[in-house]
Amino acid sequence: MAENEDGSEKTESASSKKLQDARAKGNLPRSKDLSSALLLIVAAVTIYGTGTLLVRDLSVLFNFNFIVERKDIFDLSRMVFHLYESVVAMMDSMILLMSVLAAAGIIGSIALGGLNFSWEPLLPKLSKMSPIAGIKRMFSMQSLVELLKSIAKVSLVGLVAVLVINYFLPETLALTFQAIELSVAHGIDIVVWSFVFVTLALVLIAAIDVPFQIWSHKEKLKMTKQEVKDEFKQQEGDPQVRGRIRQLQRQAAMNRMMSDVPEADVIITNPTHFSVALKYDQTGGSAAPIMIAKGGDFIALKIREIGNHYDIPVIQSPELARAIYRHTEIGDEIPQGLFKVVAQLLAYVYQLRNARTGAPMPDPMPTLDVPDEFRWDGE
Predict the structure, then answer these.
(1) Contact of 180 with 63, CB cutoff 8 Å
(2) CB 307 within 8 A of CB 277
(3) CB-CB contact of 362 with 352 (8 Å)
(4) Which residues of 49-78 are buried (b: 16+ CB within 10 A; e: fewer)?
(5) pTM of the entire structure?
(6) pLDDT over 90 for what percent of the chain?
(7) What is the rounded distance in angstroms from the CA atom of residue 316 to the CA atom of residue 92?
(8) Is the link from the previous residue into 239 a cis peptide, with omega within 30 of 0?
(9) Environment class of residue 32 by beta-carbon count within 10 Å: exposed (0-12), middle (13-18) or buried (19+)?
(10) Fewest CB atoms within 10 A around its CB: which of 108, 122, 147, 195?
(11) What digits encode the pLDDT tens for the residues 237-257?
(12) Which helix (H) or strand (E) element contains residue 314?
């Protein structure tokens, strides 16, 4: 099992953040064997598919260079011309082959891990220049595994290559006795089939190497339990700091709510446990009264104090106060089921307000009957 530098075991899978950080640094699972196998497969297929074009170009090249007059050999300009004509003769087939192989090389290198751009691997690191660190890497378990893999690959590919050479050796020697065009076509067949057999060996190696690279990459990025906790703290913040932020946010919301209390038309109380402040702005287009503040215990007392200071009517109606507190949020209109009882209360409040300017005193406040579905005992 993987261990950290301090000896703690890495038992946890890498988090999404650590995977993203590793990708940003260019740390991705890669398989050189997969790239090599794909390159050989594409090369074999391309040579086989473009065999006619390749045979034609090679035939022209051989005929042109095997038949050289003696005077041309001692003329530098003629030799340069021969070189130029040779390059031109092979230009179209070579450009096609090299382009396909270049594309195959790029695709093979990103087939495992995907496309990724990062400058991190190019940056100089002092740790890579340290002789001690270099010796540790040379004699590490990873180096031993890579050495064994290399020996196994060379042995397998070498064995297949020897078998292929022995199998095609008689045909290869016979090429010298054939006409040029026939010899080139036959030689291309031998090369293609040699690619096929060697590629099969590399495909077998890649089939083993790809899962190993994926597993090795995950193992290297595993985290200890402490690393997971530290990363969570970095992303979410320290619990004490978050608690302090929430406290400040609640305090700011409370201050905003208290600053709206002086605009209330009426404050309804429990009378001691709950207080709610309602505002009905007929000119503002409100369809129903809006609750602008609510609170329990100390906050309820503070709302009443502000109401008394600004001479806002404070009405004791325990059932209505509990119902509005329970079923309405700050800034929302009261529920439709409470329209009638709140309208009766506001009508009484407006009559009290008019009585202060000389109007007759209103009759006693009517009984405020809260519908059964809105009743709440406050527990």
Answers:
(1) yes
(2) yes
(3) yes
(4) ebbeebbbbbbbbbeeeeeeeeeeeeeeee
(5) 0.45
(6) 1
(7) 97
(8) no
(9) middle
(10) 122
(11) 566 767 777 777 778 778 888
(12) strand 314-316
